[in-house]
Amino acid sequence: MEGQNVINESALLESKSLRDSVLARTDVLDRVKALSLLPDGMHVTTAMVATYFGVTVEVIRQLAKRHREELEANGMTVLRGADLRKFESDNMSLSLGSYPQARRSLTIYSRRAVLNIAMLLRDSVVARQVRTYLLDMEFLARTQPVDNPVQTEAVSLDDRIDQRITHILGKTVVPMFNALIETSGEHRKELIALRAGVQRIERRLHQHHARLQRLEGVRDDRPAVGVMAAMDAMNARTFEHHIAKLLSRDGCTDVFVVGGHGDRGVDVVGRTPDGRRLVAQCKRYAPYLTITSPDIQKFIGSAKVLYNAQVALFVATCPFTPDALQLAVETNITAVHRGMLEEWSAGEPLKILE
Q1: Cα torsion angle, 271, 234, 9, 3, sign
Q2: pLDDT digits (tens, 9 = 90+) for 214-242
Q3: Which whole-number Å values give the CA distances from 8 to 11, 14, 123, in the listed order?
Q4: Helix axes 111-118, 125-143, angle to 10 degrees
């Protein structure tokens, strides 16, 4: 792993220089869980940071105290006096109406500072998910070939290059410039320059599209620490095949992907190692979404009635609501939530299959 120059989680927790090298990737915060911001659209309070990471306010305060200099360099600010009054005036959600006395200070954090905290906070499931997502994106950035060395901006997996634009540029706009250049004398140089600019844009679009295809491809040599980010980059069909491979890996037989039009609410079918009929529903949702009780209710009918399954898996890249989990237990549905899916993909077999 060291030969590949890939950052691992322990190094990230211990090394400030490594943390600094990935602080620009603040988009990973919303990929794991929606980060609510103050009305200014840029900051959060200590309480909001604690809520995001699922820890107490005191935990964040102590961490901020221990790493004050680093966090301040990345956007943590303590407001006092006139600055505090102005900030509270601009952000009505911080009204002092619920406080018996006016506070003397307020600590606020930028998104960059929140990402910094995710790389320092050890005992938080959300912080760990942010780190694993961050590490996987860093792995992809370091191991994929770079089409344009000058281009260093991060490519978002959610951006989709519309190939129709590329087609129009190459098949319509450029030929139009060619025709104008042939018939124009006075503005020939300007037209040639414009054509060159359009051709550069066309090449860049092709390069971006190629990079996105590589980023979204499934890699067998990626480190286990980034398995969830790899699945988040899959499309629904690829995710179904990934689950089928996991089932086959763990000894299941007659495993087939049936998801798609007419699948009747089941994506994968097969038999467990001991011969029980198995079905799986696969949902590749954003990490901040949830599987709800109605989702489970729909699956119950398909799994138990239509397929007469003895083992029914509802696999999702997001959490389940408490009601959904309770219903799954009551109806003998195995809910494979994001955390369990990560462990399963990393090599830990599902107990229900044993």
Answers
A1: positive
A2: 444 444 444 444 567 778 778 888 899 99
A3: 5, 10, 17
A4: 100
